[in-house]
Amino acid sequence: GAVVSQHPSRVICKSGTSVKIECRSLDFQATTMFWYRQFPKKSLMLMATSNEGSKATYEQGVEKDKFLINHASLTLSTLTVTSAHPEDSSFYICSAKGGISAGNTIYFGEGSWLTVV
Amino acid sequence: DAKTTQPPSMDCAEGRAANLPCNHSTISGNEYVYWYRQIHSQGPQYIIHGLKNNETNEMASLIITEDRKSSTLILPHATLRDTAVYYCIVRVYGGSQGNLIFGKGTKLSVKP
User: Fold this and answer.
1) Average pLDDT rounded to a whole number, residues B6-22
2) DSSP reduced 3-state for A102
3) How far is CA A23 from CA A65, A77, A109, B60, B65, in A?
4) Which residues of chain B make contact with A105, given a CB cutoff of 8 A?
């Protein structure tokens, strides 16, 4: 199957600072990527849809100025958590939609654990 | 996307087949059934998908009823490493958005 890679897998940052998480599709081009957030023992919640070359589409209740998404190329999307607070601590997961050669299937990254102290 | 219903948890003995059911009674004609699983602290892993015919790959088999209102994921010989939360999702194939809406899934525990 297609490979989606996230970096870093774990990050600890201080309150008030910003942290960037990268999502890369390694062997296919993804015009659309998705960012999810998951709290312990809960299901994945879609935060936003990242479209290459245009602005991201955010789900209701997600602050776009706090969670900055950039989809700079067909293989890279980044999520920047700005002015992080302890309540932003969570598991963040990206996914990318493969093209026809990948069966239009959506593949997920390994996830990134963010801890804000 | 249509909503799916899955049992919250299931147990399976190691080496036996694990049969995970999913109800999707409001599925539309152009929606596929997708299965993913999430092992603790990892991103979801794609397993299999299908429209109306039964499908099989190296990981699992997918059985879809003729009326497409329900399906069953079969892991033929479950191992301890198959312990995970399994999600059944319906989605339009190649849809312009294509985002997946996750329910609560089924927590499968494979026991020795």
Assistant:
1) 97
2) helix
3) 19, 5, 7, 28, 37
4) 34, 46, 49
